[in-house]
Amino acid sequence: MGSLTLGSPVVLAPMAGVTNVAFRTLCRELELERTGTVSGLYVCEMVTARALYERHPVTMHMTTFDPSETPRSMQLYTVDPEYTYKAAKMIVDEDLADHIDMNFGCPVPKVTKRGGGSAIPYKRRLFRNIVAAAVRATEGTDIPVTVKFRIGLDDDHHTHLDAGRIAAEEGAAAVALHARTAAQRYSGSAHWDQIARLKEHVTSVPVLGNGDIFEAEDAVEMMAQTGCDGVVIGRGCLGRPWLFAELSARLRGLPAPPAPDLGEVTQIMYRHGELLSAHHGETKGMREIRKHIAWYLRGFPAGSDLRSALSLVETLADLRRLIDTLDPTAPFPEDGHGPRGRQGSPAAVHLPEGWLDDPEEDIVPVGAEIMHSGG
Description:
Elements: E1 10-12, H1 21-35, E2 41-42, E3 47-48, H2 49-53, H3 57-62, E4 73-77, H4 81-93, E5 99-104, H5 109-112, H6 124-137, E6 145-150, E7 152-154, E8 157-158, H7 160-169, E9 174-178, H8 192-201, E10 207-210, H9 216-226, E11 230-233, H10 243-250, H11 262-280, H12 282-296, H13 304-310, H14 316-323
Parallel strand pairs: 1-2, 1-11, 3-4, 4-5, 5-6, 6-9, 9-10, 10-11
Antiparallel strand pairs: 7-8
Helix pairs in contact: 1-10, 1-11, 4-6, 6-7, 7-8, 9-10, 11-12, 11-14
């Protein structure tokens, strides 16, 4: 992708409250431990372009990278070409990252009703101006700009082919498609056939596919079915940060490392707690680990009382004491695989009044630059 050459075509998708420096470090450590390589691209939590430029303290903390992390990848949420340029130029001038991705995939109603997220690609000129601004800010550097979007607003308003073409024309180094519409949110099945259509339509830059990759074999199948150049992994790695080792191996034609037993999972869980505590402090780090614990223990034998106690863990010592009561010999469960995280139900996309009237309008939506969870 532009100046970046990856050892495997695997990208960790930004997820709010998940893909911070602690989780990315853990994924990289497990890939190195299990395959001997750190080969993919691990993207940090998405940050808002304006908040970055204005140096909001929480946003600046979210952009923390481990000293050994390379390439450093940052994803921007943006609706405004002006702040897109300012934020991207700041990344360049202050050496904050080696790669910039831009997210136009969020389907959350509070975002789309203001004209942000997955609403943006419908406005072709505005979308073009935003991508062009980021590319202009990185001219003369080795920092590539990539773009992620969905199929469109709904089944009547597909935008991905235009979005892919426009991004490539404006200098994006790669495009990624979450193969759902905004109306689907995270429900139902991803439409891999639309990834294939995008790959046929955009031939000058790599095309990455995203959606319904929960196992390494899913990635192999997606690339075979669609011809896409790489895969983007989101919910499939929740509670399974070792998935990237499996993906790296399989997409390089090697056998996948075996799934961990419960003893290994508890050690990974504790390491995650350590890393979160180092990043946030122990009190907030333990609050953050609680949601991960439920994902880690999915399908494993653990009583309701123990799960309840773990959901209230407050210190690393408490975490160690509780997980040491689990059976370390329990094998990885069959139902530990499959969909994870939010799914929800399809729903009509909330848009600003008159949003669909003129797809060529390039007016910046008002009030759309808010922090949100991305998609």
